[in-house]
Amino acid sequence: xxxxxxxxxxxxxxxxxxxxxxxRHVKRLDRRNxxxxxxxxxxxxxxxxxxxxxxxxxxxxxxxxxxKRQHEQRAQIKxxxxxxxxxxxxxxxxxxxxxxxKIKRLFVDEEMREKLGRGQxxxxxxxxxxxxxxxxxxxxxxxxxxxxxxxxxAESAG
Length: 158
Prior knowledge:
The chain is built from four helices and five strands, in the order ααββαββαβ. The protein has helices at about 5-10, 15-85, 110-120, 135-145, and strands spanning about 95-100, 100-110, 120-125, 130-135, 150.
């Protein structure tokens, strides 16, 4: 017999062979149920960790995609400004405009000044300065990032 207590109980007559056999059976079932319970708990824990890991990966992928989209938009805006900017006249008249509660100025010729007022031209932020672009380009830039367009008057009828 595997258990010395069981054999002692049998010898002393305190337990029968049937009771010992039943006790072994119950003990074996308990061990098996505990093993299954432990494996179920381990499986649940593993599934939860896997789900958390997948959620983390999904969030990181979403963030990377958003960063890539923003980077592409900035590159498109830069390209639009470089392709469409008009030359400024440093000897021309000062055109004053407000940006973030500060008054800024840009030197433009008389024709550009009139077109800015009519909404045919717009002023956009570029690097650390400002550039003048046609209305068509300003609309394309605004569709990507409204904050880049600093001055863009609506075209008046007539």
